[in-house]
Amino acid sequence: xxxxxxxxxxxxxxxxxxxxxxxxxxxxxxxxxxxxxxxxxxxxxxxxxxxxxxxxxxxxxxxxxxxxxxxxxxxxxxxxxxxxxxxxxxxxxxxxxxxxxxxxxxxxxxxxxxxxxxxxxxxxxxxxxxxxxxxxxxxxxxxxxxxxxxxxxxxxxxxxxxxxxxxxxxxxxxxxxxxxxxxxxxxxxxxxxxx
Length: 195
Fold this sequence. Notes:
Elements: E1 7-13, H1 18-25, E2 31-38, H2 44-51, E3 55-58, H3 68-81, E4 86-89, H4 98-103, E5 108-112, H5 124-130, E6 135-142, E7 152-159, H6 166-191
Parallel strand pairs: 1-2, 1-4, 2-3, 4-5
Antiparallel strand pairs: 5-6, 6-7
Helix pairs in contact: 1-6, 5-6
């Protein structure tokens, strides 16, 4: 695929940006990371974006108080101004409103640290251990109004080891995330028609 036909992807980040780094490093033919937006001015993902020559914007949710939709409308406007076609949540720690989810339906994906539909939400590693599960992993899924409930685009799994802690599981699952997210995004990009 030529650069002209690759889908323009924006990554939304809130933290260190390790999944962003994986998406950038993968060099897939079907997409390019064209924009990174962070809701936190101190997010490490901003520096990763700038280091890769990708435009990095800060849209601080705190500037909008409790008006979540106004915050998202500012992000949406920035995405549309830059002809973004797909939005990838890469450690974006905000639950999105129906406005944003609807605006990007079918083009908004997330990676979650559990084997969905088991363990949506937070603290997945501790919850998996408390339930004495034998397997754990991560899931890439489309984002819908209900948290972590969208169509599954891919999963990767690993065995829970004796002595695993939430921290050791988190580190091992993160490695799976870095391997899983780029090909799932690439397949979605190939499947979508131009906007």
